[in-house]
Amino acid sequence: MEKLFKMSDVEKKEYNLPIRDNYYFFKSNEELLGFAKINMLEKLDIYIFILEEKRGNGYGNELFMKVLENIKEYGIDSFEIKFPLNNVIMARIIEKNGGIEETRIDNYIKYIVFI
Q1: pTM for this prediction
Q2: Which pLDDT value is given to residue 114?
Q3: What is the pLDDT along the chain (115 residues), one digit of tens a residue?
Q4: What is the Cα–Cα distance from 46 to 43, expressed in whole angstroms?
Q5: What sections of the chain are H helices per DSSP?
Q6: What is the CA radius of gyration of the chain?
Q7: Backbone φ and ψ of 64, nearest 5°
Q8: Are the C-beta atoms of residues 33 and 2 closer than 8 Å to each other?
Q9: What is the pLDDT of residue 8?
Q10: Would you tell me how many other CB atoms lie within 10 Å of the CB of residue 35?
């Protein structure tokens, strides 16, 4: 079963990630599948990444669903997400999870995601 594990400051340093941001490992039985960033400051900021050799197995969708579960615990019921227009895989993941396209501006696409 896939789970999110919050990174410690030491682990963030090992991966050369900003200490101030909240990063998570995405693992299945101790096997690393990818990473997620979930920040809830002024505006929700999320990012997901699946290791290249693990792609094509549905892990991106699984990771996004785990991120949505995490966000829901904080009482957030919807958010906007913006990413490059050429990221077709992310668009599929967002749409599969109920995201609705809002705009396309300057090679970026913005979705509203309802949790």
Answers
A1: 0.91
A2: 92
A3: 899 999 999 999 999 999 999 999 999 999 999 999 998 877 888 999 999 999 999 999 999 999 999 999 888 889 999 999 999 999 999 999 999 999 999 999 999 999 8
A4: 10
A5: 9-14, 59-72, 88-96
A6: 14
A7: -60, -40
A8: yes
A9: 96
A10: 19
* Angle in degrees, 0-180, between the axes of helices 88-96 and 59-72, rounded to the nearest 10: 50
Q: In the structure encoding, which two tokens stand for residue 26, read together?
A: 């995405």
Q: Starting from the edge strand earliest in sequence, which strands make up the sheet with 31-40, in order?
A: 2-6, 23-28, 31-40, 44-50
Find the length of the chain.
Answer: 115
The full DSSP string for the chain is -EEEEEPPHHHHHHTT--TTS-EEEEEETTEEEEEEEEEESSSEEEEEEE-GGGTTSSHHHHHHHHHHHHHHTTT--EEEEEEETT-HHHHHHHHHTT-EEEEEETTEEEEEEE-
3-state class (DSSP) for residue 20: coil
Q: Are 110 and 82 in contact (CB under 8 A)?
A: yes
d(CA 56, CA 95): 17
- One-letter identity of residue 53: E
With tokens 């991120």, the residue in question is: 67
